[in-house]
Amino acid sequence: MNKEIDARGLNCPMPLIQTKKALDALSEGSVRTIVDNETAKENIQKFAKSMDYRYTVKENQGHFYIDIFKELKYREMRVLDLEMEPESLPKSDLVVMISKDYMGEGSEELGRILMKGYLYTLTEVLPMPKTLVFVNGGVKLTCAGSESLENLRKLEEKGVEILSCGTCLDYFKLKSMLMVGGISNMYTIVEHLNKAKNTLQL
Fold first, then answer.
1. pTM of the shown model
2. Hey, which end of the chain has fewer CB within 10 Å, N or C?
3. Is the domain of 177 the same as that of 103?
4. 92 and 15, same structural domain?
5. Is residue 152 within 8 Å of 143, Cβ to Cβ?
6. What does the pLDDT read at residue 1?
7. Distances (CA, A) of 49 to 43, 61, 106, 169
8. How far apart are the first and last CA of the chain?
9. Same domain, 190 and 109
10. E strand or H helix that includes residue 65
11. Are both 68 and 93 inside the same structural domain?
């Protein structure tokens, strides 16, 4: 079975996510993804290499045609990923602490796009983090008006713990606007961070 995805004009990480979804839906066959920039091409190539998929890349007038071939040996892995119950989905022993509603430094507008993309991508990859802890301005992501609520709800449905700092919600007067996850305190946050084998701060 062969599929074609026209991902021209789409921002990162959408070309890669759409390619991965198409491959996950196949037991055997190939996916052709068409992109119009080097970054998307490189991201998809790296993904294919990481999964040990055979692939080819052709360029025509600035457009890249990436053909990825999935062999039958990946069928068992695909069934495992798609059919497991949410509580059984693989999770890493990773606690991510998010202290801003944007990612990186420089442009906050760009940073908000990146943060939204990061949280969306977490819903599409395995293993997932064990816990997401939101502190300071990061609590805005869990409250009404956040563009990431749908993705955070998906993560919570899949068993990822979502915690927002109660002191931070009070400071920003957002406690009544919390839409996903639970309210936590510094003692519990420190416990989660200390017990985690891996932590990440954004």
1. 0.64
2. N
3. yes
4. no
5. no
6. 65
7. 10, 25, 32, 43
8. 40
9. yes
10. strand 63-70
11. no
